Amino acid sequence: MTLHAPLILDIAGTALSDVDRRRLAHPLTGGLILFGRNWQSRAQLTDLCADVKSIRLDLLIAVDHEGGRVQRFRTDGFTHLPPMRAFGELWMQDGKGLPGSGAMKACEAATSAGFVLASELRACGVDFSFTPVLDLDHGESGVIGDRAFARDPRMVSLLARSLMQGLLQAGMANCGKHFPGHGAVKADSHVALPVDRRSLKAILADDALPYTWLGSVLTAVMPAHVIYSKVDDRPAGFSSRWVQEILRGQLGFDGVVCTDDLSMAAARQIGGRELSYTEAVLSALQAGCDLALLCNRSTVDGGAELDQVLDDLAEAQLKGRWVPDEASEERRLNLLPRTPARPWDELVRARDYMQALDRLP
Fold first, then answer.
1. Is 260 one of the annotated active-site residues of the chain?
2. For the chain, what are the domain ranges?
3. Cα 7 to Cα 5: distance, rounded to the nearest angstrom
4. For the chain: N or C, fewer Cβ within 10 A?
């Protein structure tokens, strides 16, 4: 009996095909990640999510929906959320000359953003968003850029905590990314493998501080597709040193560890060799990750690579090369909302929702 469903897969269109249904019903599939291509309207998204849940109620429906340039759904009533940098900029404003008033206003606005983000997604049946970004804005990374709140880890931590509070108010879990920090490297891990040559001490004293300070409220963490060469020669998501010794052991994190997209160019390289998708999934799970994301593969050759990974992972389980982790499965299930979502028509008339919209920068 499989006790662990670690794979988060994607689908090609705006409705489920028979092949999609088969993959989502597979006991090794733990969830679905949605993209812009899966969006047509609120009604269509709501129907799609309901269809997914009709297959298995425990499937996690997730999306990258941060605000700014990373927001998958932008029309048909969805609020255009600002990039996280907007909250850092609001923090630096000295509202009406009162000491700290800019910071308080920014934190309140971040809470409102989290509430709006989660409420709108949940009204359509989406369970979870991979947010907030905890990377520090060193001014080096184009792929992070205005997705980061600020350079100062104290500001990042307080603004992220505020946004997470808003998510929680709407019944949604959170995901801090990209551990231990992606903001200090120039290369875009979608297309290249960045290398950060700082010492462990330097990283823990700067970029990783939000993970230390937010450990009690983070429900999930996504490691970076970055090699921190003075710590390990493997990218963080494939590194038991980073995942088990540092994140879980030293920092005491006990929530979900979820890989970034393993279809990315940088994601499948260890020791200069490009891994197969199955090898990448197994390496991440063996390093201590609970969930493995395989994105944008359903659109290639009918998703044959996804079928191959499902078959290979099942075979690895049978042959003892991978052992399902019951604790990982419990952590995955903990990401599912525990409270009913408000329907859209009720949400947009609600006083708390309208007040939250007014507080956005």
1. yes
2. 178-293
3. 6
4. N
